[in-house]
Amino acid sequence: MRKLQVNPRSFVFFARRACTHTHTLQAQSPKQSAVRVRFAPSPTGYLHLGGLRTALFNYLFARKSGGKFLLRIEDTDRARYVPGAVENLVKTLQWAELTYDEGPGKGEHGPYYQENKVYRCFCTQERLQQVRLESQKSGREMVYDRHCLHLSAKEIDENLSQGLPYTVRLKAPDGDLVVKDLVHGSIKFSGKIIDDAILLKSDGYPTYHLANVIDDHLMCITHVMRGEEWLPSTPKHLLLYQAFGWIPPYFAHVPLLFNPDRTKLSKRSGDVNVEDFARNGYLPEAVLNFVALLGWYPPSANEVMTLDDMIRENDTQTCLKTRITDAVIINAFKFSLEHLNKSPAIVMHEKLDFLNKQHLLRKAGTPAGLDELVAMLRIMVRKKLRGSEGEYRLENEYLARVLNTIKERIRNVKDIPELCEYFFVDPDYDTKSAEEFRSKISDEKLRTTAVNALEKLNLIRGDNFTLDGLKMAIDSIIKDTRLKPKDVKSALRYIITGTQVGAHIAETIHTLGDDICIRRLKSFRRY
What we know:
nucleotide-binding, 11 strands, disordered N terminus, 4 domains, protein biosynthesis, Glutamyl-tRNA Synthetase, domain 2, 8% strand, glutamate-tRNA ligase activity, 3-stranded antiparallel beta sheet
């Protein structure tokens, strides 16, 4: 963090700062330079869903425009700084595969941490609190009453000679100010509600507003994309750009996130920590897909998208192969600011569960994705299950078969151990669930099914132990026992897996293999 050294008797600092950099960087107009966007979180805790969405939209816009995506840490609030927060932010962005082009550790505009139009304010905290209370009582907007704006030079010198602490405020104009936003259009702010923002604190450190504007300018940021909660601060930022004589960037404020009950989503409401989603078994692809749809609607009907899908339309590869012009290729990008909503987005966790399942199915459907899931499953089996029937049960081929058998039932990575436990350990018939099933079916039906199934599976043991062969065997069991198909399949599932629900019983038996299933049928006959 940089502390701005300001001469307490002069404000030439502001004019000098503006002139120095305006001459060099004034040409960096949004219309003339390459797109540069930034994600600028404060290191005050974990990255929440809203922050991840802001980072994603900035990332997508940069990639769409062939520009740069920056990470900048806004550490101007020393009181709320949380040790380790910066490292966690970087780690979470890495988990989500949102790679920044410049930021902590890389880039030429660093360090990527903070640092007759202004006047000194000597008001104490007690007086400012009294102004707030009076504003609340009268129903007025809370704006500073400019008590110190009209201090004489003599009064200012006396205060300075006494060593009274002061802040530096920006004098806001009396007229209205119009903010042109790429999402909300033109918004008029009354001069009566634009506060004289504090730029420098009494300890000499810059406030967020001053550091934000200076850093955005010096880093040549062309587009500021952030949450709608920052919209009321935008007039202050525009006034600072005017005071410095700088060309402001474009602004785009993305909609707020709401809970299903229409209350504002916040860190206090829980279920917003991105790291928690990672720990709870959600894939980064699914979480990014989920937050992308919070306020953005894709031009195509398909809502299940990877990061690459969000950047490009499905036909972009064809465009690249035929070497048609860059203009056509850019038009093939999917993400655009024009498709952002103005209305608040409702966070429905059921949607995340659906998307997570779809991405798990996608992953299981590719060799690389299946290998990744196999590695995860091996770790889970070793750590969470009670044991295995031999180390060979953890071989890649077997684990891949297990995943392919249960993939339609997986909603979350954390579901996997419970869904596939019987593929690695023998059934436990003493569980509460098993006892509940025993109360629904007679012992006679179970014994009849076990005896008949043992006979049929022995007949197709070895090379004939195929999926088609198993389906025929089950049909034969139903015919010979004269039991209902539902009862036979439920009994088989209970005997071989100890569960009441699961993947198709023929597929389950085929994945387990003949030796395991026949051994379990024999064991059940003795049970």
